[in-house]
Amino acid sequence: MQPTLLVLAAGMASRYGSMKQTQSFGPGGETIMEYSIHDAIRAGFGKVVFVIRKDFEDNFKKIFEPKLNGRIKTEYVDQDLTDYTGGFEIPKERTKPWGTAHAVLCAKDVIKEPFAVINADDFYGKDAFEKAAAFLTTEVAPDRYCIIGYDLAKTLSEHGTVSRGVCQVNEKNELVSINERTKIYRENNKIIYEENDRKHEVDENAKASMNFWGFDPSVFSFIEELFRDFLKEKINDPKAEFFIPIVGDAFIKRKKGTIKVIPTSAQWFGVTYKEDAPIVQKDIQDLVNAGEYPSFLWK
């Protein structure tokens, strides 16, 4: 069974209207997401599911269907505040989406096979998709998930601090915990994060989560259970978010199974600051020049 790729795009769908050209990073006008889909197709994924906002669905399909038709199956899922909230009444103050784990849950009805989850606006690299596909076709199980681990040092920005999920890994290359560090940067050749106005050093070889996960479809029932717990506790907090690392952490702590940390040699690219955009464009152009990608992905 071919694995599925779940792309979390609800937070960026608004950028695909009249402003879509501002998100072009490839020489042929490609978005970062298109490189991920291209890499997934090469790695053997059979379907891509987009989690988007309902009000941008038509524009989104107009852009992507002509490019992907005949290359990979596509499905579109809307993320709405009312999805999977059961009998809970949503406060009027709540306008922000529930978060990435809720976005995954919204795809429950269209994914019945092992699947990977990625962010729409991060560049993950060919190696990461090949390793994820191999795991999802040979190792994944209801008690065995994975996360792709990037070298933390390769995910920093030259233009300011970044937030990263720093992975704690045991001797079996299994995830022990993910610690969200909100202010990470390089200073005097060291990786530093700040917390409570204090500076702490991070291991130079630490692995970072860039939200690239591999799951068995049984995870949906677990996420749904955790989401109910989240709503009981946080529904009146308009800023509270239900993130995928919450699911991973609970999976480990409740002894539901293990999460394999798969290291990748791939260079992660992302646009945290507007100053990062030209760097990402250059990095992609360098990969095109090196023959990793064609100048026009879908020609």
Task: Give a structural overview.
With 299 residues, the protein is α/β, with parallel strands linked by helices. 28% of the residues lie in helices and 27% in strands. It is built from seven helices and 13 strands. The strands form two sheets. Strands 1, 2, 3, 4, 6, 7, 8, 9, 10, 11 and 12 form an eleven-stranded mixed β-sheet that branches. Helix 1 (32-43) crosses helix 4. It is globular and about 55 Å long.
Q: Span from first to last CA?
A: 28 Å
What structural category characterises the helix and strand content?
alpha/beta
At CATH level 3, the topology is Spore Coat Polysaccharide Biosynthesis Protein SpsA, Chain A
Strand content: 25-35%
Amount of helix: 25-40%
The second-level CATH architecture is Alpha-Beta Complex
* Unreliable spans: 13-22
Helices, by number, come to: 7
Per CATH, the class reads Alpha Beta
Shape: globular
Largest sheet: 11 strands, mixed
Task: Indicate the radius of gyration in whole angstroms.
Answer: 19 Å
In a nutshell, what does this entry contain?
The protein is an alpha/beta fold and 299 residues long.
